[in-house]
Amino acid sequence: MSQPSLSLVDTDPAELAVDAIVIGLHSQPDDGGALLPAAGAESIAAAFDGKLTSTLALLGASGAPGEVTKLATLGTVAAPLIVAVGLGDEPSGSAPEREKLRRGAGAAVRALAGSATVALALPVPDDEDAPGVLRAILEGALLGGYRFAGYKTKPQPRRLPVAALQVHVPDAADPAAGAEVIRAEIVARSVRLARDWVNMAPNELRPPQFADAVVAAVQGTGLEVEVLGLEELKAAGYGGIVAVGQGSEAPPRLVKLTYVPEGVESPKKIALVGKGITFDTGGISIKPTAGMWEMKSDMAGAAAIGGAMLAIAALKPPVAVSGYLAMAENMPSGSAYRPGDVITMFDGKRVEVFNTDAEGRMVLGDAIARACADGASYVLEASTLTGGQVIALGKRIAGLMGSEEAVELIRAAGDKVGEPAWPMPLPEEVRKGMESDIADICQTNNAMDRAGHMLQGGVFLREFVADGVEWAHIDIAGPGYHAGEAAGYWTKGGTGVPVRTLLQAIDDLR
After folding, report:
1. Does an H or E element contain 92, and which?
2. Which residues contact residue 460 at a Cβ distance below 8 angstroms, ignoring those fewer than 6 apart?
C-alpha cells in the first residue's frame, strides 16, 4: 500500500484540524505512578483545564512504552480524537529517548488506521538533538503505518493506512528539519519495499520473479544492473549458488546493483551482500513441517540489500556501493544437491556438504567471493542464516560477526537506528570442527554437532573474505521476520531489518 504523505507544521497542536492528534505520555514512578504529558502536548493539556492526565488514567493509561490510549475531545481542541502513546519514564537528560519515540510513533499511527489525516505532537527539542529526534519520529510513523496489500479478494476498509501525516516541530521552515523529511520518505519507502518482498507468497516470488522485481524497482534510479542466470552462473563458477538452486525448476539468479558517486575521486568501495533463498524446504535434509511456511522469509537479507540500494541511489552518498543478491530456491528433487557432495565455489575453494539445509552459507560464499574479486574494501552481509541466532539472542537482536572495524561499524549503526546487533566470537575450535577429510572445509561441523551453530555460519563465511577486506556478517534469523502481533513500528511479517543499519553505516563511512 502507498506510503502516507508527510509534512511539518508549527501551528499550535490544539488548533490543528486533523482527524486525530498524537501526544506522548510519561509515567512518573517516583510520584506514585502519576502521568505527565510529554513535551509538545502543553497546549492540549491546557485546553483540558488540568484534567487530561486524570481522564487518561481513568481510561487505563499508565504511560508504559508503546501503550496507546484514545480519548474523544468533544470539541476541547480542533481534532476530534487524541491518541496518547506511552513513552515510559520522563528522560533524565535533555534529549528524548529516540527508540521509545520511534516505537511510540509507530504504535500510534498503526492504531489510527482508517484515518485520513493524523498529526503527531511528540517531543522534538529546539537544539542540536532535534534532527536525530525528528528522524526517529518520522521513521516510526511511516513504518508503523505499513500494511502489506496481500491477496484478499474483498476490500478491508479498516485496514487502510493513514493517508497523511503532519509532524509538529518548533520551526517548520527549518532546512535541517525539511532534509529529515526527505530522508525519512526515502528510507521508509525502501524499508517498506523490502517488507513487501518478504511478505509475498513464495509461489509469487521465486528466484526469476524476485530478480525481475528488483530490476523493475531500480529502473530510472541510475543504478547499474547485472543479472546472472543459470547458464552464466555455471560458466562463471558460482558452484554454491548453482548447487543450492539445482533442485528447483525455478533457476537461481545473482543480481548485482551498483552505485557510483559522481565527482568523487577514488571513493571507498562498499559491498552489501544478501541471502535470497526465496523458499527453504531444507532440500534433501528436509525441515519439519511445523512453521515451514515462514521459510518464505529466507530471502529477507537480499530484500534488505535491494531496499538499501534503492535508498542509496536516492541519498547519493560519496562512496561507491554495490549490492549482491544471491537468489535460489532450496527444494528436494532428483536433481537436488546431496549430503556428501563436494562443491567448487566461485573462488575455487572446495566444500564438502553435510547438510543441505545449511544452504544460505553456500550462496553467500559465492557472493562474498565475487564482491571481494570486484575490489570491495568493506563487505557487509545480511542473512537469515541460523536458528542458532534466535536461540542465543532472540527475535530482536541480530548476531554480528566479522573483522573488528566492520563489526564495530555495524554495532554502532544498529544502536543509533534501533536495530541492535550483538558481537559474537569466531573461535578457532569451531573452525577445527569444520575440517574435511576430502575438501577444503566442511559446510557445517563435521560431527553434525549444533554447538555454536551461529558461529559455524560466521566461520564458514570468513573463508570467502579476501585478505585485508573489512567484513561483517549480520545474522537476522530472528529480527528479519516478526511472526507475532504488531509492536511499535514493526508489523507482522517482514521487518526490513537491517536496511536502516546499513544506511547509517554508509553514512558513518563517508
Report:
1. none
2. 361, 365, 434, 441, 443, 444
Pick the closest to residue 231 from 219, 212, 246 (CA basis): 246
3-state secondary structure 37-51: ECCCCHHHHHHCCCC
| Among 175, 95, 170, residue whose Cα is nearest residue 136 | 95
Do residues 444 and 360 lie in contact, with contact meaning Cβ atoms separated by under 8 Å?
A: no
**Residue 487, beta-bridge partner list:** 490
* Cβ(403)–Cβ(458) below 8 Å: no
Domain residue spans in the chain? 5-175, 195-508
Which residues carry out catalysis? Answer: 287, 361
Q: Which residues are 349's β-sheet partners?
A: none
Within 149-263, strands assigned E span 164-168, 224-228, 253-259
167-202 tens-digit pLDDT? 999 999 999 999 999 999 999 999 999 999 999 999
Exposed, middle or buried: residue 203 (CB in 10 Å: 0-12, 13-18, 19+)?
exposed
Indicate the DSSP class of residue 433.
Answer: T
DSSP string, 104-169: HHHHHHHHTTT-SEEEEE----SSTTHHHHHHHHHHHHHHHT-------SS--GGGPPPSEEEEE-
Q: Using pLDDT thresholds of 50, 70 and 90, give the confidence band for residue 90.
A: confident
CA–CA gap between residue 353 and residue 301 (Å, rounded) = 22
pTM of this prediction exceeds 0.90: yes
Which CATH architecture best describes the domain 5-175?
Answer: 3-Layer(aba) Sandwich (3.40)
| 499, 315 contact by CB (below 8 A) | no
Q: Could you tell me which residues are beta bridge partners of residue 470?
A: 378
Instruction: Tell me if 475 sits within 8 A of 420, measured CB to CB.
Output: no
- Asked whether 272 and 321 are in contact (CB, 8 A), the reply is yes
Is 195-508 CATH 3.40.630.10? yes
Classify residue 135 by burial, with Cβ atoms within 10 Å: 0-12, 13-18, 19+: buried
CA 239 to chain centre: 29
What pLDDT was estimated at residue 398? 98
CA angle, residues 31, 33, 38, in degrees to nearest 5: 90
* Cα 66 from Cα 87, distance rounded (Å): 7
